[in-house]
Each structure stands twice: as structure tokens, then as C-alpha cells.
Amino acid sequence: MKQQKETVTLTVAQAIIKYLSSQYIEIEGEKVRLCGGGFGIFGHGNVTCLGEALFENKEKLPLYRGQNEQGMGFAAAGYAKAYLRRRFMFCTASAGPGTANLLTSAALAHANRLPMLMLCGDTFITRLPDPVLQQLEHFGDPTLGVNDAFKAVSRYWDRITHPAQIIQSLPAALATMLDPADCGPAFIGLPQDVQGWTYEYPISFFDEKIHRVRRQSPDAEEINDAIKLLKSAKRPMIIAGGGIQYSGAVSELTEFADKFQIPVVETIAGRANLLDTHDLNIGPLGVTGSNSANNIAEQADVILAIGTRLQDFTTGSWTAFSADAKIICLNAARHDAAKHLSLPIVGDAKLGLNSLSTGLIGYKASSDWIDNARKERAKWNEYVEKNTNLKNGPSSYAQAIGVVNEYCDPCDRIVAAAGGLPAEVTANWRTLGIGTVDVEFGFSCMGYEIAGGWGARIAQSEKEADKDTIVFTGDGSYLLMNSDIYSSVLTQKKMIILVLDNGGFAVINKLQNNTGNESFNNLISDTPTAVKQARVDFEAHAKSLGALSETVESPSGLADAFLRAKSANETYVIVMKVDPYDGWTNEGHTWWEVGTPHISKNDKITKAHQEWESSRVRQRKGI
Asked: Is the pTM above the cut of 0.90?
């Protein structure tokens, strides 16, 4: 007769938290909890049951109180990025609008392939009290609710309708979040009654487990095909994406480029794969890139794209490369490796580079090609030097970036997102430390900056407490989501936040003007319904949230203020007005496909449409 396994009686909520607290991972030889804790806002859908379980485990899984559920998700994304996807945070929200507020941040995590666990309240599975507060009723389908919306923005989705289901669901969610190919957010809906139901769980379910991130070896035939193509290259180029950092393959990339003398250009997510001073770092590529990278991209005959999903800002909507150029994609995800008729190598970046290196022995790109690339980079360096110069025209994003670049620590973490700043940081930032730049452009999400910076700071304080997290944000993003300044004050997770005020959504106004349209509803001054032209006192607002704050009048004053912020122990907000029209980085842009009116009563719009469409002939056709 078989002996029954030992069991323990727990509620579903208690079992979930007990399981999460027993999962570990090794990072640089140190065993740490896989889940770093969570962000939570309680309501009737999660406070009584999940809240009880979290209270009993608050030392093992610290819970950070959020101010807004969307901000919690952004913070979880910033945390996961800082840990290179090796650790994650959970977010818990109440049933109804609390959970619905997580949709945008779940989409951000999905687009950026980031691990984030959502433990969200749901309606009663028994339906006895239906309809409950904040429940949406679908008359023909009583199983359908707000939580079903997360199916579109989750890599793993489940609704727990019986306590035993978490024995399968939790390991599956963790496996998804740790998979280099399928990594993304996991959503688990927790009906309010089921959270409190008990079950006899096997004690072995809660045994300590050490997880590892899988390294998939590339197929030998795919490697051989890629080697043959690379050996034929006269003008090879490497596109270095964010996947290189997630793979821990920065050293392999550097060694590979040095060994075979192949110039490297970076995507937005891969913006800190090489130091600025590396002589094969030719600059950022694409719409927000550099003349240097884009000029050699037009000439390259074989392109090795590593750890990138080749989004339109990287490829210039597929106009950045010659129509005859051959592309090799090395990526852990088959979906990304096979894009645009590429020669795919499905596998880990580190293992893939090592395999390619072995087969390429004896190959080296021509000195003429390398000399040309280096000359292009030297010219771009001169442009950036002028562009960030404090005496260069009106106050600008680029000047502010130059000040921070000069006075920050090489290991400080830079965070930016959406609006004009991603382009300006990508183009003008001179990388001082590997993996120190987080420009959120996968979902291009306004409001990520401060919340994501808070999450990054939590991670950074666990690793490098003496370094700073520096956030660049515009006034538009600040007004959209700023409450995690207060979160950083409450938790004593210091950030330095630069609020660069250009009077509205200036970068979209720029796009509006560039396509022949009149300024309308982007800058406050051009908003007809803004009958009172009031400017926000960002300094006073930041102070009201508990931060130290000051306003400076110019980039030269910003330098002194930044040094004061560096020496402070509290979150420090520096406000500076920048010109909404002048001072933009106008070099380094590839074409970008934008939908423009084919006809218009405005001749300027019609002319702009014709000019915009004239570059379409360079667009590569593919899938």
C-alpha cells in the first residue's frame, strides 16, 4: 500500500505566498529569492485573504504600497530590467478598476519581454452574490470579466477556480517568466471566495527550489549557414540588442567584434552594450540613432542582428538597410529570429556568439571598412559635442543630457521613456558603464519614467546602494504619472529626477509640424480649450510629495543643482524649462513610416505627404 504524502492545510492565498517565498535563483554565485517582493494596493478583492497571507510573510516578500496600479506595474518592469530578467516582482490589485489599471503596464512588460506576476482579485466563482461591486456583467457570457482583457497582454493567463489548480499554475507561470524565448507577464485571477478556500497541499510543493534561466544551444546547421554567409561579407555589421545583456553576453560580443573587426551599432534596448569609448562602437541605429550607425547600415552587405526584435525605430521602418543586404538573426525567440526573411539562429546569444566565433577563425573585415566606420563615428562625436554644448542655442534636452553625462557616476542608472527624451538620450548619451541605460521604448509608454525609476532604484539599492538612479522626464509624462515620487520618499529609495518642461507634448507637436499640420492641442499654448494659460509649479509640487526640489534657469545652473542632488540623501527633483521648437537633435534620423493624409485642403500637408512618401522606395519588402 502506497504511503500518502504529507500535507498542510492552507488557503489558496497562503499557499501562493508560501510557494513564492520558497523559490530561489543564483545570481553571480549568490542564492537570492526569485521573487523580490511585490507592489500592492488593497481593496475588497485582495485585502482580506491575500493581504492576510502577505502580512504573515512580510519579511520574506516585502510589499511596497503603490499609489497607482499602473505605476506599480511600471515599477515591477523597472525592477526586472535592472535584474536582467533574473528576478521579478508581483503586483496585486483589487477586483475591478484596480486590476484594470494594470493593463497598460502589462502591455509594457509584454512588449519588452519582461517578467511580472499579477495576482489580481476576481468576482466570486460561486456567483451567489452576483453582481458584486465593480463587476462588469456580460449578459450572454457570465464567465467573461475585466480580467479576461489581460489575455491580450499576458504570456501566461489563468483564473483559479479550485484550490488545487495552483499546483500546476504557479510553476507554469514561473517557467514562462524565466523562459528567454517566451518571457513576459503572467496573470493569475483570484476570485474573492477561492482565495480563502482551503486545501490539503502536499508539503513537497513548498520545497525550496533553485531556478535557472535556460540557455538554448543553437542548431549546428543554422550556425554553419550563418558562418558561410559571414565569411562572404565585405562590409559586415552587428546590431546589438537588449537580448545581449539578458544573456550576459556583453563580453562575448566585445570579444567577437574585436576578433573579427566588425563594427557594432546599438538598438535603443541595447544602448549600453559597449562603452562609448570602444573603437568599434559606431553608435545608435535607426530613427533615434546616429549618422554614423545609419550611414554604415546603408552600406553593410551582411548584418548580424543579436538579441533584437527589429522594431521600426531600429530598422527605420525597414529603410535603414540596402535592399541587397543579408540579415542573420541570432535570438532566443524563434518569432524574432525569423523576421524579414532573415537567416535565423534560434538560441542563446552567448552560446551563439561562441559557436560563430569558432567557425569564423581566420576571417576579418577589411581595414577600409573599419576605417570608414570609425571616421563616421568620429564625425558623430563632434556633432554630439556641439549638440550638448551649454552655449549651443536655447536650453535643450541635449544640453541637460550632456550635464548629467559629465557629472554622473559611471554606474548610475539612467531611466527615460516616451516623448522626445528617448530619442535625445539614445542619440546623445555617452555610455560610461555597461547596462546602465534604461530607455523604455518597447511600448513607448508615457509615465514609466518615475515609476520605473522607483522599481529600478529598489533593485539598485539591493546591489549598489551607493549609486544613483537618474530619471529624465518631460512635463507631459510628469503630469501623467508622478505619485511614485511620494513612493520613493516613503521607502527612502532616492532618485534624482530631471523634469524638463517644454510646455506640453512638444515632440508630437514637432511631428505635427513636420507633416505640414498646424500646432494644435499638443503645446499648452496651442490648445484652444486651454483658456487660462497657467504653468505648473513642478518644484512646489515635488516638494509637496516630500522630495527636495529646485528650479534652474539654464543648463549651466543645472550642473550645480545636479551636484547638490548627488550629495543629497533624499529624492531630488530638478526642474528646467527647455525650448519646445529649437534645440532638438536634428541629425541621425532614418525615415519612419507615419500615416499621413493622402489629400488635404492644406497645401502644406499635401506637400509634406508627398515628401514623406518619397522615401518609401527604399523600404525593404518582407514579412
From this structure: yes
